Amino acid sequence: MAAIRDESSGTSGIPFDSKQLIPKSMKIRVVARNSRLSLAQAQEVMAKIKGVEWKLIPMASYGDKHLEIPLTENIMPDFFTKELDEALLNDEADIAIHSAKDVPYPLPQGLEVIALTECLANADVLVSRRKEKLSQLKSGAKIACSSPSRQQQILKLRPDLEIVDIRGNIDQRLAKVFNGEIDALVVAECALKRLELEEFIAETLPIKTHPLQGHLAVVAKAGNVQLKSLFYPLDIRKNYGKVSLVGFGPGNPDLLTVRALHAIDEADIIFYDDLLDASVLVNVNADLVYVGKRRDKHAYEQDEINEMMYKAATAGKQVVRLKGGDPMIFGRGGEEYDFLASKFIHVEIIPGITSALAAAATQAIPLTRREQARSVSLCTAHDIENLPIPNTDTIVYYMGAHHAVAIAQKLIESGKKSTTPVVIVESAGNVNERSIHTNLQELASGKLVVNSPALIIVGEHITHTSSTVQGKQNKILVTGSSAKPYEHLGKVIHTPLIQIKEVEPSEQLHQIIQKAHQYHWLIFTSRWGVVHFLSLLNKVKKDIRIFTNAQIIAIGKYTASILSKYHLHADWITSDESSSGIIDLFMTHSLVGKNILIPCSNLSPATMPNLLRKMGYHVDSLIVYENHVPDNIQPVDLSEIDIITFGSPSGVKNFKRIYKSIPDHIQVIAKGEVTKNALYAQGLLPFEDWVI
């Protein structure tokens, strides 16, 4: 009988009757350590599996046999599980039941955890002879702890106590308290509860414990569907969420992968850091937690980030850890993966474009090249005293801005020619990307200013780059909603200063629909007017056919091309890409029909409608979208910009608010007279010959 898949949780569900998968003649062989606590744990688990015969196999582990080895030493991960796991692999047992925190990570190949039980109790408690609390113990009292973490935390609370190691089972440890060998003992609360020894607890301690303390893990051979289905009801992981470690790439949202976008869209909570464009997160429905780390300034320490992700996942949330670049390249993705996977959290890794690849693309630098560069190394310069200098044709140093001079000096000292070409790429792949083409000797001189974040690319073959082959390209800052019209002018940096949001159907829309047959002209002044007008009609189950007597006018060819995508063809197209073209059209051709409808934005100027009214036309303006200032705008370094384009008065207004002025070296392109006048009105005067 096949297992039923639970699509809502994404995990394999249990069959309708899981016990049917176990042959009636089969008796489940359960292996556990031969301590009283371990045997009680096995009984606890198997008592919840009704109607199945089972046999308990007690077994001493390596750790049980070697009590002389203190747990404060660097013990093997499988110290308490090795012999039991071997019994599973040798088919001498069917399942092993462990304290979950004792399960090694990774598990031996061929095994898997088929169930993680509910936590009985996660705290540590104090046992003392006369039930003294920690604060009541005399100075110099001996207190036994079995782990380095417990010892360190107890000393922080009571540095005057004498910490001693302890081994043995619970009964042996308690005996040392009551025979006077030690004064107090730190022990897991769950151990005393399972052995019904709570009466000896003096107090619950305010110390941090292992996340898996109190849980039990059921381990079996991998792929055993029958056993997985049988123990599925006990497995609390079915209520867990998933953590996705997502590579954002170098920071430019255009370089995000489709899978990354899906993960962001599906997330309940997102932990994000620096080196990314936070505008991507503006419209997401997830909780956002900033965990960025800059040099000597951390919002959270790595341990805290790990804990927050773990708690969110165990609470059933879909978690995204959004990281600059690729999670597994200098991104601590490996640490986060190990922390979560070792605690039985499902982790997905979604790769991102690492900065070295982004820089190679934008600067046209081949990191490898046939017959010239057959090897490449990606290195971190974070620890300059131990700077790696690999023997590869290309070396890329991450985190190199602060140590740029020292990097060059160390490379020369290692035998690299002082003339070896170097390309420094700041903010690779981002709107503020800047490159410096130099060599090791000049970089080592300290004359160059290198800003963080920066990559330092070193190699004999990188003399031919986009700058040296194509010459310097103009950098075009496009502030409007469409960058395509300006791509022929140079390298486009598209940072829209307007954010378009469709409105909900209004009472005015319903009134216009009622009299749709009375309109003679529909005037579309922009692509957004087209898109959102048709969308609103669709929302109320109407379409443009209700305007039976209307002709369509489009401002300019671009607006007309948007209409054509909806299989609509403009009857009239103005040659002037501005509202003045509409006025000229009506004056020149004496267009018949007095009723006009103009779908527009909340910020559309009233100039054109008022002029048409003065000419004797009846004009209705219908707001179909709103124009807002985008959230989380990242200002561009205007010193690197050659040309700025403006597509609307609202874009001009928002630019003024963010940048205040336009540097003298920049040329300006203004789309239409209205936008040009807005530039004059805001004190941002364009060069006359660049107004289009």
Question: Would you kindly provide a written description of the structure presented here, covering whatever features stand out?
Answer:
- Helix 18 packs parallel to helix 19 and helix 20 (649-659) runs parallel beside helix 21.
- The protein has six domains: 5-118 and 215-237, D-Maltodextrin-Binding Protein, domain 2, CATH 3.40.190; 124-204, 3-Layer(aba) Sandwich (D-Maltodextrin-Binding Protein, domain 2); 240-353, Cobalt-precorrin-4 Transmethylase, domain 1, CATH 3.40.1010.10; 356-470, Methyltransferase, Cobalt-precorrin-4 Transmethylase, Domain 2, CATH 3.30.950; 475-498 and 630-690, Rossmann fold (3-Layer(aba) Sandwich); 500-628, 3-Layer(aba) Sandwich (Rossmann fold), CATH 3.40.50.10090.
- The protein is built from 21 helices and 34 strands.
- By secondary structure, the chain is of the alpha/beta class.
Strand order of the largest sheet: 27-32-31-28-29-30
Q: Residue-averaged pLDDT, rounded?
A: 90
Under CATH, the homologous superfamily of the largest domain reads: Periplasmic binding protein-like II
SS field, number of helical segments: 21
Number of distinct beta strands: 34
- How many whole angstroms does the radius of gyration measure? 35 Å
- CATH class of the largest domain equals Alpha Beta
